[in-house]
């Protein structure tokens, strides 16, 4: 009886070793896939449609962290797919006065999210920055 128990325990131990070895391989493979996916995402940066070419100090745009040469990928509901001209952005700004807008920009090759609240301030306009369309 004791010999049967030893043999059975040995089988259980071997099966556990095999199970953990397979799990370790699977985990390593998953990590490699995740790394490859992360690398491919950094190469496929979203397309920008406009660029910030001036930011006035003390303005809502300046306070939110918008910077000169930021390329705009998303400005509220406006993105590369539905952008026709700067009037699209002006309309979003007017309708969002006093409410935060989600703005996504490309800054030195990285995607950056900025919370921008258009509002009246000492200068002209609701943002205090100048945006120009990108010619592609």
TrEMBL record:
Matching Pfam families: PDZ_6
Residues in coiled coil: 5-42
Chaperone is among the record's keywords: yes
Residue ranges annotated for the PDZ domain, each copy included: 17-109
One CC-aspect GO term: cytoplasm
Keywords: Chaperone, Coiled coil
GO biological process per UniProt: proteasome regulatory particle assembly
Source domain of life: Eukaryota
Entries under SMART domains matching the protein: PDZ
Described purpose of this protein according to its UniProt entry: Acts as a chaperone during the assembly of the 26S proteasome, specifically of the base subcomplex of the PA700/19S regulatory complex (RC). During the base subcomplex assembly is part of an intermediate PSMD9:PSMC6:PSMC3 module, also known as modulator trimer complex; PSMD9 is released during the further base assembly process.
Oligomer and partners: Interacts with PSMC3. Part of a transient complex (modulator) containing PSMD9, PSMC6 and PSMC3 formed during the assembly of the 26S proteasome.
Similarity comment text for this entry: Belongs to the proteasome subunit p27 family.
Record-given protein name: 26S proteasome non-ATPase regulatory subunit 9
Species the sequence originates in: Alca torda (Razorbill)
Gene coding for it: Psmd9
